[in-house]
Amino acid sequence: MNVEFPCDACPLRALPAFRAFSPEELAFMDRFKQGELHLEAGGAIFHENTSSPHVYTVVKGWAFRYKTLPDGRRQRVVKDLPGDLIGLQAVLHAEMAYGADSLTPVLLCVLPRTGFEELFRSHPSLAFDVTWLASNEERLLDEGLLSVGRRTALERLAFLLWNLHHRARRAGLGGDGPVPFPLTQSHVADTLGLSLVHVNKTLKRLRDSGAVSWTNGSLEVRDEQRLMELGVVSPPEEGPRPFL
Amino acid sequence: MNVEFPCDACPLRALPAFRAFSPEELAFMDRFKQGELHLEAGGAIFHENTSSPHVYTVVKGWAFRYKTLPDGRRQRVVKDLPGDLIGLQAVLHAEMAYGADSLTPVLLCVLPRTGFEELFRSHPSLAFDVTWLASNEERLLDEGLLSVGRRTALERLAFLLWNLHHRARRAGLGGDGPVPFPLTQSHVADTLGLSLVHVNKTLKRLRDSGAVSWTNGSLEVRDEQRLMELGVVSPPEEGPRPFL
DNA sequence: CGCGATTTTGAGAGCCGTCAAGATACGTGG
DNA sequence: CCACGTATCTTGACGGCTCTCAAAATCGCG
What we know:
By secondary structure, the first copy, chain A, is an alpha+beta fold. The first copy, chain A, is about 40% helix and about 20% strand. Chain A contains 8 helices and 11 strands. In chain A, β4 (about 65-70) and β5 form a beta hairpin. Chain A is globular, with a radius of gyration of 18 Å. The mean pLDDT of chain A is about 90.
């Protein structure tokens, strides 16, 4: 296939956070993979309430899923980082109930939605991985609901920053130093169910606490203990995870 | 097996909302099924942050998943009705990040978590169903996040009542008349991210609008059009769905 | 240097939370 | 059948967190 990254050269393979494939699985995925999609920052990946012939694995960059109400109110739902699968709903339902767009330039691995039946038939272990990814996203959504429903603005913000920092690290970004953090405060507001103005004021309080510093699109955690307390974070499961 | 409902007598099979099994699938599920669990109303099904050897399909009754913060704030996450699968996370992760309890007396179909590997190996079509269920729950969570993040109290309440009414109908409850509705206002508050008092006051406004009547544990939709407008509901996908 | 996007800050309003108390419903025991 | 206790529902008063409106400051970039 004429792609920049055949699966055995996939940059995600190298990361310890992801489970290793058997040679046979790797060969299958190489056939399954249909192409690559490069997008600019701020581009649409899916529109809301449409169907898509493709499912994507994020290889590089940051993307965001969202839902909107008819009058334009927007709620961002899940942040997708390298290794995450976008658009699984397209395989199982006629339409996708969410949209997605890119925050940074992204590289997406293109998988045909029609190929999943064969994947399930011939590779149970990969089917299991698909289900793992779906279940993991459910877990993120549970946390998001808990945040928006019950945490205060300061807690929400602390939780979000900690969580994204943690996930970005696992996805191989940033080494030990600050992590690249391409969100605007408006994105954060859409994620937390807050207004832009209030995010800004809350962020000021959080900065004054000395737990984090977030400037110029990069995020540094100065006092992780304190940040976790402020965000009422419960430590997550570690260990390798799958991706497609 | 010594159970009240072998799979071919499962009361859910009779409902048009669920997809039919092949005889072979049915035979497999009959072997897979490990037993039945009857619980009183208000009983715990799972505790938060524990592991479970079982996964359950709700056959009769209503159950609720929830998450809590250390200081006791609680957010209810997904309502589980007949046909829904509870505890899939137990198959894929070491611990479940949510708890679940029953609202009414429930009958649960018990599936061993260790059996899912074989299910994926021998029955790709059922594995697909498992993934469908996971993806469907993600869809419910997306809607929940949109509600709690962006809808006003009145909109949230209208949306919730419409949604539960719709799902209860599909699960075969209530015929054309009022639907049994075993929630307390406190449950609703925990679901919507509101306080009990505010739910009560909002409910009064909603009742005054004439769209719904909710008394004595039963819910009647008087003006569906109006209720959908108030809740900013987008019509859902119809058609048969799977269950295990 | 100038323009748009983003961030910051202030003022005022309103939705919703907390506190408190009473009313109603329901199951239990006398 | 009535008394009583508990759970649930209802209502009012008050306060605060967060929203909206508005405008200025800063940043990124051509």
